Amino acid sequence: MVSVKEALQIITKHTQMLNSVTLPLISSRGMVTAQEIYSPLDLPPFRQSAMDGYAIRSHKEKEYSVVGEVAAGDGKEFQLKAGEAVRIFTGAMVPKTATAVIIQEKVTRQADSITINDEVVLESNIRPRGEQISKGSLALQRGTKLTPSAIGFLAGMGVTDVLVYGKPRVGIVITGNELVAAGEVLKEGQIYEGNSKMIQAVLEEMSIEGCTKYQVADNFEGTCEVLKKAFQENEVVLVNGGISVGDHDHVYEALKVLCVDSLFYKVRQKPGKPLFFGKQNNKIVFALPGNPAAALTCFYVYVYPALQKVMGHEGMGLERRQLAVTKAVTNILGRTLLLKAKILENGEVEILEGQSSAMLHTYSLANALVLVPESVDSVPKGGLVEVLMLPN
């Protein structure tokens, strides 16, 4: 059995990034850049009007002659003389000879002349060439997550393809005789299987989609067969249930038969003590507890940072903060406590009722986990605790 800190160190040591792959930009959402990206052009590539109005070449008077019009996308150039102006629209190319753009609300127009009703500020309402980024400058560092805004930024520079770290194929193996699919009629002793949907949902929050679900009853031969198939088809295998030491728990023995290297089994924590992490060649496997709240906690604390690293993220794990707790906490177990909690508007953190490893209702109200180390037996009201921010 290992500590929480030791478990995280082992995961970091034995988890490797996937190979990089070149993808169309639109297909790269949520992925991470595998190389630095430099701008192929100035952005904007010309002096650009920031407003609808008039581009002028300044002189001492308030009146200007309007000699033309420039709309967005027009490539025509005007050689303005002092005292001349052109009607211009947002995004349009500002004539090289223009000294300012005056917004239309500050102008009175009569026929082919305008009167400016404000002081002229040179270069006002003009986006200079390369204002956002200049040609050859670093646009995105290696290890940057491609969010919708990052994709839009690259698309605006004309980038069509990007080199990114791959997304892992993830298999979810669900074990248990008692589990039936939603929609079926429950018989005595049966429950609906929801953990696979929960795990799939949190994977999709990480932009990992299209995972494969496998389900197996509580028998040794079937467990071996399904796990073998899951390893063949995926880089990451997540097993849910069957990892304890009961007569009907076969996952641990099946993993040994499949020559999976056991890197740790059991963590000094509550909930989620019977957690397994191992490798089969370059593939990793987590065996999560069957109780849903314990499984989700183990996912957030251990699987989440592992998948981040596999996909090339520089940051590891959930964001952590030190916050004051609203009530005293006691820890008489000698294990690390991982408690469902909610951060309040005043910045304090409240530990919620209903900490059972089988209860997801409390999790649906939580936005954080409070981590109380195994070496700490109590925290007073108002004392600082380590808080893991959930991605929701």
Automatic annotation (TrEMBL):
Pathway: Cofactor biosynthesis; molybdopterin biosynthesis. SUPFAM superfamilies: MoeA C-terminal domain-like, MoeA N-terminal region -like, Molybdenum cofactor biosynthesis proteins. Residues 171-309 form the MoaB/Mog domain. It comes from the Bacteria. Keywords: Magnesium, Metal-binding, Molybdenum, Molybdenum cofactor biosynthesis, Transferase. It catalyses: adenylyl-molybdopterin + molybdate = Mo-molybdopterin + AMP + H(+). Its EC number is 2.10.1.1. It is an enzyme of class 2 (transferase). Its cofactor is Mg(2+). Belongs to the MoeA family. Catalyzes the insertion of molybdate into adenylated molybdopterin with the concomitant release of AMP. PANTHER family: GEPHYRIN, MOLYBDOPTERIN BIOSYNTHESIS PROTEIN. This is Molybdopterin molybdenumtransferase. It comes from Sediminicola arcticus.
